[in-house]
Automatic annotation (TrEMBL), chains A, B:
Residues 23-83 form the HTH tetR-type domain. One of its GO terms (molecular function) is DNA-binding transcription factor activity. This is AcrR family transcriptional regulator. It holds the Pfam family TetR_C_16.
Length: 206, 206
């Protein structure tokens, strides 16, 4: 294109912000929602602030995503497909499954955006029975049942839930309460201590 | 005292409620505060509701207990003296310390009022950085340092904090998210699974 072919004036652009229906805007809205839920907790997070951060109209946000509940659920967008946990961590040699699960969890939290999403979930579940209930249903259906199906132990669901409890507790102590030296401990320091815990929950007595 | 000696009319009683300064009233106020913090979370808990539940005047509540922050700290009144954890659970044969810690934690939560206090703390720490900071200071000074001093391992503080993380995570999964079958599991089912975790954190590599 030569300069002669350029239009004299730029094409007209709407000044009302992004189109809420596009995939691009959906991603922007969900990112803004996750940041807001993580920063302020489920109760104090504001739809207006999310709309502002995403550059969309608040009324259109409600139109496309519904209530704060529904936006929260959409924003969960789990950082990882639960099936991936089962496939990558539980598959392979069972004698080293604890190490793979510990490595998987420690790596996961270092991925961009994952920690914010996990903390938003934990904070919301800790303060709102409705969210705890949503989490309970999701965790049971998508995570515990899948993991339990792979285990050769008695009470496989209970084992999977104890693994879940250590993951949640580690997130609380390391990233919320931020107790030292745990908050600053490296992956290399934590791996050999956490691996036996997961190994025990998933395989002891098998 | 014979009936003839009884005063004809009862001694005059104030109708304005309890005296906020008495030990009795203090206990009543702290119980009301713990119930309110546990039920509504730190942010939504109301000084007015606490005063009403305790039967004291709201202004006097402020006068005697200060701000909500200060009342919260007073209400923490940890369910157990941290030194007791160290003395009862860590003393004795180190080969069975995991079992004693697991038994201690599982028993503790069944004591009247303890669970409410623990959940109020966890909820508040999860949603309010100020409380997380208070908890961090308290946990480090009163719990981690004492436990670490008793351990014959490298990185004793890190070990003690991993133990703390499993206790917090268990409370979240069992009593907040209430995922089943963990929420209904008996002490007898949980003890043999949890004991090796605590044993590993506190003694592995000793």
């Amino acid at each position: 294109m030569t300069s002669a072919e350029q239009p004299a004036t730029p094409a007209p652009r709407k000044r009302t912000g992004r189109r809420p229906g596009s995939a691009d805007t959906r991603r922007t809205v969900l990112e803004a929602a996750r940041a807001e839920f993580a920063a302020r907790g489920y109760e104090k997070a504001s739809m207006r602030a999310i709309a502002r951060a995403a550059g969309v109209d608040a009324a259109l946000l409600h139109h496309y995503f519904g209530s704060k509940d529904q936006l929260f659920l959409a924003a969960l967008e789990l950082p990882v497909d639960p099936r991936a946990v089962v496939e990558h961590a539980l598959a392979g040699d069972r004698a080293t499954v604890g190490e793979r699960v510990a490595g998987f969890v420690l790596t996961l939290w270092e991925q961009p955006g994952v920690l914010d999403r996990m903390l938003a979930l934990i904070r919301a579940a800790a303060t709102t029975e409705q969210v705890a209930q949503l989490m309970r249903g999701f965790v049971t259906a998508e995570l515990i049942t899948r993991i339990a199906a792979e285990l050769d132990v008695e009470q496989p669901e209970l084992r999977a839930e104890l693994m879940f409890s250590q993951v949640v507790g580690l997130a609380m102590a390391r990233y919320v309460v931020k107790v030292e030296p745990l908050a600053s401990a490296t992956r290399e320091e934590l791996l050999p201590l956490l691996a036996p815990t997961f190994q025990n929950y998933l395989t002891a007595g098998a």
